[in-house]
Design brief:
The chain has 257 residues and is of the alpha/beta class. The protein is 27% helix and 18% strand. It has a six-stranded parallel sheet with strand order 5-2-1-6-7-8, with helices on both faces. A two-stranded antiparallel sheet has the order 3-4. The longest helix is centred in the first third of the chain and has 16 residues. The structure holds pyrazine-2-carboxylic acid and zinc ion.
């Protein structure tokens, strides 16, 4: 029903008007703010995203997130943490611990961080390899020291199974196991999710894709997110928009909640 511009995005003023005068009055939305993986390793540690292709500074998300937390009356707040055991399947230095499938594009001996391999399984499993990061109970897995942690917020831990990676905060990558997020959202009757954090094109992207698939009204806060690869960030945005998600800047959130 909304007019769409050339990028397929809806007009923000039109959206804000309909939201405040019609949708909110009828639907009585309940909002959740989900802050994804704002952890030391992604900002200044072993998986420092500023050293990746997009060269984005992960610490820049802290200020807009803190502003949102102290300004916007979200009904509930969630923080996710990438939380891996030392023998996790995604670590490049663990690649020799498991057998690769013959179809793997790189052998264990040649594999480097950021390469994608195929583990033997069964079933065979594609896996991007990363530097060892966010090991449970280490400094690298802690939230950034300047990130505001609000009272009553819920922490969601993911990637705890050594055999399966977990980019989405809802599910592991094989959709074998759910985190506590779905249940906690349902308990609170959440209808709308505002998502931001690190990394835009990895865990933030996978999380909003699942949120849209489940049927939440899903909003990505663009200026409160930073990523790894520019092309993948663009792909993430395209996927969000084509699945009826909304991409906004933090200052626009105040008029939506
Ligand atoms: C992430 C790579 C590996 C993320 C987690 O939080 O985006 N990226 N593990
Ligand atoms: Zn990880």
């Amino acid at each position: 029903v909304f007019d769409r511009n050339r990028d397929g995005a809806i007009d923000r003023e039109e959206f804000a008007f309909c939201w405040n005068h019609w949708i909110k009055v009828i639907v009585r939305p309940t909002s959740a703010f989900l802050i994804v993986d704002v952890q030391n390793d992604f900002i200044s540690g072993t998986l420092n995203i500023s050293k990746c292709n997009a060269q984005q500074d992960g610490s820049e998300v802290v200020e807009p997130i803190n502003w949102l937390l102290s300004t916007v009356p979200f009904d509930c707040v969630f923080y996710s943490l990438d939380w891996h055991p030392p023998d996790h399947v995604s670590y490049i230095d663990n690649v020799h611990m498991r057998e690769l499938h013959p179809s793997s594009p790189v052998s264990a001996d040649k594999a480097q961080a950021y390469d994608t391999v195929v583990f033997a399984g069964p079933p065979p499993m594609k896996q991007r390899l990363w530097p060892r990061h966010c090991v449970q109970d280490t400094w690298g897995a802690e939230l950034h020291k300047d990130l505001k942690v609000v009272e009553g917020a819920v922490m969601v831990y993911k990637g705890t199974n050594p055999e399966v990676d977990s980019y989405s905060v809802f599910w592991d990558n094989k959709k074998l196991t759910k985190t506590s997020l779905s249940t906690q959202l349902r308990e609170r009757n959440v209808t709308d999710i505002y998502i931001c954090g690190l990394a835009y094109d990895v865990c933030v992207g996978a999380t909003i894709a699942d949120a849209l698939a489940i049927g939440y009204r899903s909003v990505l806060v663009d200026d409160a997110s930073r990523g790894v690869e520019l092309a993948d960030i663009e792909r993430t945005k395209d996927t969000i928009v084509s699945n009826n998600g909304v991409i906004v800047d933090s200052h626009q959130v105040l008029s939506m909640v």
